[in-house]
Amino acid sequence: MPEIDIAKAGLAGAVARFLEAAATLRRLVSSDPQFRGICEEYALAQQSLARFEGRADAAERPEIGDYRRLIAELEAEIGGFLQAAAPRR
Questions:
Q1: How confident is the model at residue 11 (pLDDT cuts 50, 70, 90)?
Q2: Exposed site from 44, 52, 57, 73, fewest CB < 10 Å?
Q3: pTM value?
Q4: Can you give the residue range of the structural domain that contains 45?
Q5: What are phi and psi of 19, to 5 degrees?
């Protein structure tokens, strides 16, 4: 999968999770390479989780918990970027 497609997939996942901040997410992914990298990691983690959850032996796969924790950590990072990008009142 080309890098741009991974970034787009990550952005789509982030928008689905933080729908109210879609415009800010789009701006961040186009202007901040660090944020774009987090979105790429987010997409890859979601894809890996889906593959493990789709396995016949999913109930025995410790990777599922690992990827769920990783996704939660990445969502927290994305949330941190959103807080930093929020206008100050």
A1: very high
A2: 57
A3: 0.89
A4: 3-85
A5: -55, -40
